[in-house]
Each structure stands twice: as structure tokens, then as C-alpha cells.
From TrEMBL:
InterPro entries: Post-SET_dom, SET2_Histone-Lys_MeTrsfase, SET_dom, SET_dom_sf. It is found in: Chromosome. This is SET domain-containing protein-lysine N-methyltransferase. The keyword RNA-binding does not apply. The lineage of its organism: Bacteria, Pseudomonadati, Gemmatimonadota, Gemmatimonadia, Gemmatimonadales. One of its GO terms (cellular component) is chromosome. The keyword Calcium does not apply. Keywords: Chromosome, Methyltransferase, S-adenosyl-L-methionine, Transferase. One of its GO terms (molecular function) is methyltransferase activity.
Amino acid sequence: MPRPWVVRNSPRHGKGVYATAVIKAGTKIIEYTGELISEAEGERRYPTAPDGHEEPEHTYLLTLDEHRVIDANVGGNAARFINHSCEPNCEPIAYGDHMWIVAVRDIKPGEELAYDYAIELDEPHTPSRKKRFPCRCGARRCRGSILKPKYQPLHPLVRAAIRRYGPEAEARRAAGARR
Ligand SMILES: [Zn+2]
């Protein structure tokens, strides 16, 4: 199957990735590639801006697990252009050392792919820090910030997708198929 997406300019922010065909829920759409580094190395490469300063644009870092991040500035592919939305249609899910962008619901051709960045800073998410990470996703229930909300769990679609399509579910299906 040819890749069901294309990169083009997005009204949300810079470039975006758009579906060109129906993408079914649970599809591993594209791997988020880049250099696998420690969280500390990521912080060293791209320090958080001090208060009162804008965050630098275009630092493509994605958290893989508790200790590691993927730096898509080094060896990154089109996945790094996927924008944030507070009402996402996909979600990065880690399968071992590989991060895949997985559809959390059926996606129609022409829709922009977007996942919830849910960025967690080391410092508390104060109103001024939230302003440094604004969200312009346009969703009806937009949080106004791409930072992770403290008391609100992930979007229900995302939670369900992780359960249904994540690495444990995949392993269960593989075990079932072998029987
Ligand atoms: Zn938003």
C-alpha cells in the first residue's frame, strides 16, 4: 500500500502531515525516526527557554520512555512535521525502541494528522509557562497550551488506542496467532 499521507503547509503551524486515503484506527501510520538519546542529553541539546522568553521553534524531540527521547533533528522523517491538537486523531506509541504514530480513530482523506504533544516540563506549569507553549489547534475544547494538563487524563480516544493497539495488545495478538 502506498503511504497514505503527504507533507504540506499547515494553517496550524509550519508544515503538517495530511491523510491522502482512509486510515483505519489502529494503523501504524509512520515511525517517528531520529537519534535515540537520554533525556539529559536532550535537555543539554535543547535547554528550555528561561521565563519570559519564547521557546525556540522547530526542536523535534519526542519522549520514548522514562529515560529516553528521540531527537528528530538528527535523522528525522516526515513524522516530525505532525502538529499538535487537543483533539488528536493519532498518538505516538512506543514499541520497544521504536515509536510509531498510530491512528486512534478512522481518519478521512484530507484530514491533518495531529497528536497531543502533552509536553511535561520539569518545572510547574504556571500560567506564564503555559503561554510560552501556546496551542492554536482550533479544537472546540482547546486547552490553549500544548503542555500536559496536570489533572486531566489523556484524551479518551488516546487511552483506548494505547490499550487496543499498544505493544501489550500486539504481543497478545501475536501469541494468539501462534496458538
Ligand atoms: Zn489546542
